[in-house]
Amino acid sequence: MIVYDKQYDVIVVGAGHAGCEAALAAARMGCSTLLLSINLDAVALMSCNPAIGGQAKGHIVREIDALGGEMAKNIDATGIQFRVLNTRKGPAVRASRAQADKQLYRLRMKSVLERQDNLDLKQAEVTALHLEHGAVAGVDTRAQVRFLGRTVVLTTGTFMRGLIHIGLINYPGGRAGDLPSIGLSDQLRSIGFSVGRLKTGTPARLDGRTIDFSRLEPQYGDDPPKPFSFSTDRIGRPQVPCYIAYTNEKSHEIIRSGLDRSPLYAGIIEGVGPRYCPSIEDKVMRFPDKERHQTFLEPEGADTVEYYPSGLSTSLPIDVQWAFYRSIAGLERVEIMRPAYAIEYDYVDPVQLHATLETKLVANLYHAGQINGTSGYEEAAGQGLMAGINAALRVKGEEGVVLGRNEAYIGVMIDDLITLGTREPYRMFTSRAEYRLLLREDNADLRLRDVGYRLGLVTGREYGAFTAKKEMIADEMERLRSRKMLLSETDRGFLEEFDLGGIQNALTFEQLLKRPDFTYAQLARLDATCAGVPEDVREQVEIQVKYKGYIDRQDEQVRRMARMESARIPTGFDYQAMTGLTAEVREKLDRFRPDTLGQASRIPGVTPAAIAVLSIALKVREEG
Amino acid sequence: MYRADTIAAISTPQGEGGIGIIRISGPHSLTILQQLFRIIPNGGFTSHRFYYGEIVQPATAMVHDEALVVYMQSPRSFTREDVVEIHCHGGTVILQQILRLVLAQGARLADPGEFTRRAFLNGRIDLLQAESVIDLIRAKTEASVALAQHQRDGSVSGRLHDLQQLLRQLLALIEAYVDFPDEDLGETDGSVLQDLQSSALALARELIAGYREGKVLRDGISVLIAGKPNVGKSSLLNTLLREKRAIVTSIPGTTRDLIEEVVSLRGVPVTLLDTAGICQSDDPVEQEGIRMAQERIPTADLILFLLDSSRPFDADDGVVAEALSGRNVLIVTNKSDLPPLMVLPDALSDIPSVSISTTTGAGIEELKETVAEMFLRGGIPDSRELVLLSKARHRDAIARVEGSLLHFAEALSAGMSPEILALDIRDALEAIGQVTGETTPDDILDLIFGQFCIGK
After folding, report:
1. With an 8 Å Cβ cutoff, is B80 touching chain A?
2. Structural domain tally of chain B?
3. Top-ranked range on mean pLDDT: pick from A504-508, B283-287, B397-401
4. Which of A550, B122, B234, B362 could form a disulfide with B357, with the two C-beta atoms 3.0–4.6 Å apart?
5. Is the pLDDT of residue B245 over 50?
6. Is residue B40 a contact partner of residue B52, using CB atoms and an 8 Å limit?
7. pLDDT confidence of B155, banded at 50, 70, 90?
8. Residue B138 domain flag
């Protein structure tokens, strides 16, 4: 073993969406950082769909941006179609989504990494952790090089013991075209980590020259496109459409006839797949009455003919794939450039993590992304950012940062993972957030900019823009509260339009804006000062006024939980000695070892009575 | 100091007892009291003094009971919080009614042992005492868990489960459209949501009605004493209560001539309900009492049909018999110390009967034995386990479900956005979760994935 003569503060293993955020955060916080990847040409590669965001995921991207991460800026710079989803619903569930130029996305991220101070980027396959006295002290590589690091962040994606399936044929690989990571998960298991197996899949990539777009319905993005990042002024790249196509009865018949050669149905795949992202064979079998399944053909870039047919992932053999994709109207002559496949990989049970993403078994070791059983670039990036931040804080000897369930989707996700674990690839949904109305895309900066700035991840310029916006919001709120409508300035017809004909002078602008059918844009017709208020301030003011009742209601719920969330349980707390708990609850608490009473209360099977007993015991300990 | 919301509970043992105490603890204790209590004569509250007055329903100004109340300002109280105690007459009904008034003012029903827990957390009692609280909490919970399992087959739990399923289904439909905007799910059908809402609302109301009538969560088995006037119903009640004393639980100002007491018969907790005499009557006040009595008949687990054996079976007895037909009835013929003149009609000959005298006490032991045996034999629905569950807590929770569903319907017809609609259903699910166990967002996701083809 050759020991490299440089001691790193933070070593990040894997340069996917989690690893890039982790490495950038650590380096930006002043830590000497090493980022290792099996293939440096695959940094921040979008292994599955060429898109960022979507429902709840867009929220995470905005949060990453508010905290000073890179994902939002990267998609803004390389996106080729931007769309806000759920625009007809309320602000809390509106979400941004963008198609990326897949190659530009990865190249830009690589370039950001390369230009980052304190950051070394190297190609290597990590085969083992280097441990000293129960803590991690570095990593060993396939080429027998040892890198020393005070902390290590593992972001292994689908690479640990990755196994690719196309029909009944399977072979080791971390992703189509890449080597798997062998050895690391065996070591993790031997240390005592509970290592499980998950499965995911991706559709074929189709040659656009062989698609009859004239027979498909185009879907355009928003005009003008709305950026993800609070720091992006406008989207510069030309925008392109996606196309909508549908499977039919013939497609389903082809799928059914190929099932005898499906690794899923033949029982060869043992890993658990995501229910929200089933293969087409799963959809056909589970919903036999559905006559057609929709797919969006998403461009993989502005400068390539490759298309990604969403929702049509499969692990059926290549001849079935040919017949299946060609059965779809518009795709009769389609050529497959890359076959669809399923991949199985090792993950580590996330209940073995602290809320900082540090493992409970090995000090200074952090896990982020698919190794924790999640799926999705955004989920991975959110965890990567937090793991990078917390590793850096550990190096500095400071307390870790944990985002609350009421502060961020990132907080909801990590708390879900460590208190519930996961048996299928975990994806974020807004329905997972009990304080959903507080966790909006529009207020991600108000929720998290301060945190990012304190950590040194948000630049002074960005923070200045944020504080200016905050002041403008406060001023405008105050103005709306105090300004009263004067009938003399209004046009009678305008008021009639809103059924306000009989109204007296007493109404304030705020009261007016509270009406469900009255918007800020309409207020602007009444009051000239509104015109000078920037768009993002208008949006914020409008939401805060209109949804005040609901927001207050959720704030109240948060307040009720606050005491439990802040009650810490000391590490090594002896649950077995607590006679007031049932054996089952003792066993659960011993296995999960929650850090706070709030976490304990969310572990399935831990009853409210057990929490009451635990809270008394903690109090006794505190005072004794 | 430990900060918390305001809680309330009946703090005296249920059942017999001349007075009952409702304790309220927390920051809003005094405010709640001021809403409900009218001092005679008028004046302010000084800490640690008793005040005499009336408990008044704030909305209707209806007087519920006279009471003595005491306000103990923090920290000089049992919990070291602001504490109010309402000392009133000790019957179960009146205590429940006053407690309900207190809860309606914003207090939450205290969990088992919660006053003591607060006392401990605020440093009022020592560890030894606190440990006994832990035991108490555990005992109650384990019993509840056993009960929950026991109840699984019962119709009540079945309905709770149905209600929970309806609410989950409702939420899943809403959430599917929130979380999967780009999926090909078809159009949202408002009428489906409306149908689910009305089914859920009907179920919730049925459950609430069940609680109200005492069908579901009585403190033990309910036994109704029925008969025409002057056959000795009150005497029988007093005999069973072992002592003759003034009935203190009658509710003034109403025609609700219904007396409720809890006794233990051979170890079986029994709620005795005395009713107005049932007869043919033209007097509107009497008619109201009769109507009330008849309403109670279907809710009782057992009805003691009291007859006067010293007189012939007459038309009024026939009215009673008719009202009781098809119910669990035990015929009790009173006044066995007088010469028997009664001959039971054939229709009643198959019904078990016991002969007693409330004057001499003859036959009373046999009556108790017979009632107890009827329960122990298991021939009658045995609701004893339900004693452990708090009536007010469950009523509270299901009333919250009802309220949320009504609010949901308003929001739905106002065209509110689904994430707002979801708030009400989540509230309802949380409330029912307090009765049945837990609900997690994953349940909802399971439902969504189960019925919608989702995934890209």
Report:
1. no
2. 3
3. B397-401
4. B362
5. no
6. yes
7. very low
8. yes
B272 occurs within a structural domain: yes
pLDDT number for residue B382: 35
Q: Give the closest of B142, B179, B183 to A429, CB-based.
A: B179
Query: What stretch(es) of chain A map to CATH 2.40.30.260?
Result: 205-344
Q: Residue B295's domain is classified under what CATH number? A: 3.40.50.300
Question: What DSSP string describes B32-52?
Answer: HHHHHEEESS-----TT-EEE
B183–A608 C-beta distance less than 8 A? no
Q: Which of B111, B414, B445 sits opposite A429 (nearest CB)?
A: B445
Q: Is the pLDDT of residue B41 over 80?
A: no
In angstroms, what CA-CA distances link A252 with A259, A288, A313, B37? 11, 9, 14, 72
Q: What pLDDT shows up at residue A488?
A: 62
Give the pLDDT confidence score for residue B218 in this predicted structure: 37
User: Which B-chain residues 400-439 have CB contacts (< 8 A) with chain A?
Assistant: 414, 417-420, 422-423, 426, 438
Host domain of residue B262: 221-382
User: Please, where in chain A does CATH 1.10.10.1800 lie?
Assistant: 460-551
CB contact under 8 A, B137 and A86: no
CATH code of the domain occupying A460-551: 1.10.10.1800
Residues 6+ apart with CB under 8 A from B413: none
One domain, residues B319 and B418: no
Which of A85, A431, A436 is closest, CB to CB, to B445?
A: A431
Find the mean pLDDT for residues A473-484. 93
Q: Examine the domain organization and report whether B336 and B429 are in the same domain.
A: no
Q: Is A242 on the interface with B (CB under 8 A)?
A: no
For residues A60-85, average pLDDT? 98
Instruction: Give the whole-angstrom CA distance, residue A369 versus residue A372.
Output: 6
CATH number of A2-198+347-455: 3.50.50.60
A573-584 pLDDT, tens digit per residue, is: 888 877 667 778
Q: Which of B339, B360, B382 is the last residue of a domain?
A: B382
Give the other-Cβ count within 10 Å of B129's Cβ: 12
Contact pairs from chain A to chain B, CB under 8 Å:
121
| Confidence tier at A222 by pLDDT (50, 70, 90) | very high
Contact criterion met (CB < 8 Å) for B138 and A613: yes
Q: Residue A455: pLDDT above 70?
A: yes
Residue B150 has pLDDT above 50, yes or no: no
Å between A203 CA and nearest CA of chain B: 9
H or E element at residue B109:
strand B108-109
CATH topology of domain A205-344: Elongation Factor Tu (Ef-tu); domain 3 (2.40.30)
Quick check: A86 contacting B, CB < 8 Å? yes
Q: How many other C-beta atoms are found inside a 10 Å radius of the C-beta of residue A56?
A: 27
Q: Are residues A420 and B179, on separate chains, in Cβ contact within 8 Å?
A: no
Interface contact B418-A93, CB threshold 8 A: yes
- In whole angstroms, what is the distance from residue A416 CA to residue A424 CA? 13
Pick the CATH number of A567-623 from 3.40.50.11720, 1.10.150.570, 3.40.640.10, 1.20.120.450: 1.10.150.570
Residues B386-430: pLDDT tens digits? 322 334 567 778 889 999 999 999 999 988 888 999 999 999 988
**What's the pLDDT score for residue B263?**
65
Three-class SS of residue A596? Answer: strand
Give the ipTM of the model, two decimals please.
0.82
Gap between the Cα atoms of B269 and B273, Å rounded: 13
Strand locations in A424-482 (E): none
Residues 6+ apart with CB under 8 A from A277: A200, A201, A313, A375, A425, A427, B455, B456
DSSP code for B339 = P
Q: What is chain A's mean pLDDT, rounded? A: 93
| pLDDT tens-digit series, residues A410-453 | 999 999 999 999 989 999 999 999 899 999 999 999 999 999 99
Provide the pLDDT for residue B332: 93
